[in-house]
C-alpha cells in the first residue's frame, strides 16, 4: 500500500486533522463539566477552586502523562488502540487478552453512548433561543448525517472538522483569558491543596469525581486514533488543546466566584460570554459538540479491524477510502453504531438523562489500558519499581473514578454496561470458537500425497476439473496440508488439474507488511505461495495471486498455458478455480451445554458476516465453496442389535 505521509511527521495538515478527528469529545467538555460539578449546591470557594484543581490535575496526570507522554509511545508501527497494545505483549502474556477484551468492548460501548450525548447537548443549547424546539428528530437527523459521512474516510472528515475545531478552541481560550484577566486570583485554583480539600472535607466531595471525570473521557481516543493522525501530531496539538481547555475552565471559575453564595443559574460556559457574542457562541458550540462524536467513531473502526486480526470479532468488510495510512471505514460497524445511537436517543430523549450512562464504560477501558500498559513498560524497561509506581498511581486514580461513576448505575449507567456486555459476549464466543476449531485442525504430511497428485494430474480417464486448482490453506508449515483438503481433492470428487496451488495467508503484527514466498513442492504440478500481509493490508488475494503468477511466468518459473493439445497450440492460458472449504456444525456432535451454546451462536453470527471468499477478495465467478462438517465430539450411539428376519 502506497503511503504519502510519514506516520510520525508533524505537518500543518496533520495538526488540523488531529483537531478535527480526536479532540471533539475532550474538547467540548467545558460545555458541561463545571455545571455538573456545581450542581444544585451553593457556589463556594471550596467547590469552585476544588473543582478546577481536580480538573487540572486529572488532565495532567490522566491525559497528559498517561496517554500523551506514555501510552502513545506504545505504538505498533504507527498504530494505536488497546488491541494494538495487547499485540505488543501477547507473546509473553497471552492471558492479558481478558483485560484487552473488556477494554475493547467498553470503548465500543462508549462509541455508541458518546454521539447521542454530544449531539443532544448541542441541540438542546438552542432552547436558549427557542424553548419549545423539538430536539429528538433533529438529533437523529444529525447523527444519521454524521454516520453517512464516515464512508468518505477520516481524512475528508478531519479536513472538514479541523478548521471548525480550531475556531472552537480559539474561542475557548479567548473567552477564558478575558475572565481570568479580570479575576487573576482564580489561578490559585491550580494548587492541588484545593482538590484535596474538596475530596476529603467537602460533604459528599468524593462523589463529585463522577462529574470531574467527564473532563478526560476522550483521552482513550487519543491512543485509539493514533494511526489516523500520528503520534507527534497528537502530542503537538495536545499542548494547544490543553492550554485552551484550562483557560476556559479558569474563566468559568472566575465567573462562578462572582456568584458566590448563590445557586447556579444557567451554564457557566455561556456565563462568561458577552451578550453580543451569545448567538455566535451557541452556534459554534453546537457545531463543535456534533463533531465530538467523531473521535469514538473513527476509533471504533480501528478497534474492530484489530479485533478481527486477533480472532475476537467476525470477519466483516473493511474499506480503505484513501491510500493514506490509518484511513479505514467498516460499514457493518458504522451502521450498527448508528442503530445503537438512535436507540439511546429514543430511550433517554434528553442529554441530562444520558449523562448517567456516560463515563462508566470508559473508566473500565482506562483501567484495562493501565493493566496492559504496566506489562508493556516492564517488557521495555525491566524495572519492577517503575511498573509498580505506574500501576499503583493509575489504578488508584481510575479506581476512584470507577467507584464514583458506579453511583450512576441505577440511573442509566446500566445501559453502557449492557451494551459493553453484549459486545464482550460476541468477542468471547468468537475467540472460544476459534480455539475449539484450532484444536481440531488435522494436518497431514503433503510429501506423502505428492506422487498421488502427480498421477491424478496425468490421469486422462478422469475429466479435468480445472487447469489450475487453487486451495486456501491454514497450515502454517509448508510441508503440511489440512486433511480436509486432501479429502476434497481425492475422495469427495476427484479434482484433476494441471497444477495444484496452495495459498497460505499469515497476518503479521506489523500493519503494512506485503511479502510472499513461492515453493515448488512438485515441479510443474504442485506449488505453494505464502503471503505475509500486515493487519492493515486489505486481503485482495485474487489480485495478489494474479500478480505473483504473472511474475513467475515472466521469470520462466512456471508455464500456465493449457495442457489440452488443441489449446496448447494456440498458447491459450488455462482457467483458474479457487476452492474454499467452509465448516458447518455437524449434527453428529454430542457437545456439553457450554460448548454447544458457543458453537451454535458462532455459526448463527457467521451467517451475517462475510464469507471466506469475500474476506480473501476472491473472484466469485471462479470460486467453488465446499461445506465441511465440523465434528467436535462425536455422538455416542447405542449399541445396535441385528434382528433376524
TrEMBL record:
The chain crosses the membrane at residues 93-113, 133-149, 161-181, 235-255, 275-308, 328-348, 360-378, 385-406, 412-431. Pfam families: K_trans, K_trans_C. Keywords: Cell membrane, Ion transport, Membrane, Potassium, Potassium transport, Symport, Transmembrane, Transmembrane helix, Transport. One of its GO terms (cellular component) is plasma membrane. Residues 467-623 form the K+ potassium transporter C-terminal domain. It is a multi-pass membrane protein. InterPro entries: K+_transporter, K_trans_C, K_trans_N, Kup. It is found in: Cell membrane; Membrane. One of its GO terms (molecular function) is symporter activity. Residues 16-443 form the K+ potassium transporter integral membrane domain. It catalyses: K(+)(in) + H(+)(in) = K(+)(out) + H(+)(out). Belongs to the HAK/KUP transporter (TC 2.A.72) family. Transport of potassium into the cell. Likely operates as a K(+):H(+) symporter. PANTHER family: K+ POTASSIUM TRANSPORTER, OSMOTIC STRESS POTASSIUM TRANSPORTER. This is Probable potassium transport system protein Kup. It comes from Pontibacter diazotrophicus.
Amino acid at each position: 500500500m502506497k503511503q504519502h505521509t510519514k506516520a510520525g511527521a508533524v505537518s500543518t495538515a496533520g495538526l488540523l486533522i488531529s483537531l478535527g478527528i480526536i479532540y471533539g469529545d475532550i474538547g467540548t467538555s467545558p460545555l458541561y463539566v463545571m455545571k455538573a460539578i456545581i450542581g444544585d449546591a451553593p457556589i463556594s470557594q471550596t467547590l469552585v477552586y476544588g473543582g478546577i484543581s481536580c480538573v487540572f490535575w486529572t488532565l495532567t496526570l490522566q491525559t497528559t502523562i498517561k496517554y500523551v507522554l506514555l501510552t502513545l509511545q506504545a505504538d505498533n508501527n504507527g498504530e494505536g488502540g488497546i488491541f494494538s497494545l495487547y499485540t505488543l505483549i501477547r507473546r509473553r502474556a497471552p492471558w492479558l487478552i481478558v483485560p484487552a477484551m473488556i477494554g475493547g468492548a467498553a470503548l465500543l460501548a462508549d462509541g455508541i453512548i458518546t454521539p447521542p450525548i454530544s449531539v443532544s447537548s448541542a441541540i438542546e443549547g438552542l432552547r436558549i433561543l427557542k424553548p419549545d424546539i423539538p430536539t429528538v428528530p433533529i438529533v437523529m437527523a444529525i447523527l444519521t448525517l454524521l454516520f453517512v459521512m464516515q464512508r468518505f474516510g477520516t481524512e475528508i472528515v478531519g479536513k472538514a472538522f479541523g478548521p471548525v475545531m480550531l475556531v472552537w478552541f480559539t474561542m475557548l481560550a479567548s473567552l477564558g483569558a478575558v475572565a481570568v484577566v479580570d479575576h487573576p486570583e482564580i489561578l490559585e485554583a491550580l494548587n492541588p491543596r484545593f482538590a484535596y480539600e474538596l475530596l476529603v472535607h467537602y460533604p459528599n466531595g468524593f462523589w463529585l469525581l463522577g462529574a470531574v471525570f467527564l473532563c478526560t473521557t476522550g483521552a482513550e481516543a487519543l491512543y485509539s486514533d493514533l494511526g489516523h493522525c500520528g503520534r507527534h501530531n497528537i502530542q503537538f496539538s495536545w499542548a494547544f488543546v490543553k492550554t485552551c481547555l484550562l483557560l476556559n475552565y479558569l474563566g468559568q471559575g472566575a465567573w462562578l466566584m462572582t456568584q458566590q453564595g448563590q445557586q447556579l443559574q444557567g451554564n457557566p460556559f455561556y456565563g462568561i460570554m458577552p451578550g453580543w457574542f451569545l448567538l455566535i457562541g451557541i452556534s459554534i458550540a453546537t457545531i463543535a459538540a456534533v463533531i465530538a462524536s467523531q473521535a469514538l467513531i473513527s476509533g471504533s473502526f480501528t478497534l474492530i479491524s484489530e479485533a478481527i486480526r486477533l480472532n475476537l470479532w467476525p470477519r466483516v468488510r473493511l474499506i480503505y477510502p484513501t491510500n493514506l495510512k490509518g484511513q479505514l471505514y467498516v460499514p457493518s460497524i458504522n451502521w450498527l453504531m448508528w442503530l445503537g445511537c438512535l436507540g439511546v436517543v429514543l430511550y433517554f430523549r434528553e442529554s441530562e438523562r444520558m449523562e448517567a450512562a456516560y463515563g462508566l464504560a470508559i473508566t473500565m477501558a482506562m483501567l484495562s489500558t493501565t493493566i496492559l500498559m504496566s506489562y508493556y513498560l516492564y517488557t521495555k524497561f525491566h524495572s519492577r519499581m517503575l511498573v509498580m509506581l505506574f500501576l499503583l498511581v493509575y489504578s488508584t486514580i481510575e479506581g476512584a473514578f470507577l467507584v464514583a461513576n458506579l453511583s450512576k448505575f441505577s440511573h442509566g449507567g446500566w445501559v453502557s454496561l449492557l451494551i459493553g456486555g453484549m459486545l464482550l459476549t460476541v468477542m468471547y464466543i468468537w475467540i472460544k470458537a476459534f480455539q475449539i476449531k484450532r484444536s481440531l485442525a488435522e494436518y497431514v504430511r503433503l510429501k506423502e500425497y505428492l506422487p498421488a497428485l502427480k498421477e491424478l494430474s496425468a490421469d486422462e480417464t478422469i475429466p479435468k476439473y480445472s487447469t489450475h486448482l487453487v486451495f486456501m490453506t491454514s497450515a502454517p508449515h509448508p510441508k503440511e496440508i489440512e486433511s480436509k483438503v486432501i479429502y476434497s481433492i481425492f475422495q469427495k470428487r476427484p479434482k484433476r488439474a494441471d497444477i495444484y496451488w496452495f495459498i497460505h495467508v499469515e497476518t503479521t503484527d506489523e500493519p503494512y507488511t506485503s511479502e510472499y514466498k513461492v515453493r515448488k513442492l512438485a515441479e510443474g504440478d504442485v506449488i505453494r505461495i505464502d503471503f505475509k500481509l500486515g493487519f492493515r493490508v486489505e486481503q485482495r488475494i485474487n489480485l495478489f495471486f494474479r500478480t505473483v503468477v504473472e511474475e513467475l511466468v515472466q521469470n520462466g518459473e512456471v508455464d500456465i498455458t493449457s495442457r489440452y493439445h488443441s489449446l496448447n497450440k494456440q498458447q491459450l492460458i488455462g482457467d483458474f478455480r479457487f476452492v474454499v472449504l467452509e465448516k458447518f456444525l455437524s449434527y453428529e456432535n454430542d457437545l456439553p451445554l457450554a460448548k454447544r451454546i458457543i458453537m451454535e451462536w458462532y455459526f448463527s453470527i457467521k451467517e451475517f458476516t462475510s464469507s471466506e471468499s469475500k474476506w480473501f477478495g476472491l473472484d466469485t465467478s471462479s470460486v467453488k465453496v465446499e461445506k465441511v462438517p465440523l465434528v467436535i465430539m462425536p455422538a455416542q450411539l447405542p449399541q445396535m442389535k441385528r434382528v433376524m428376519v
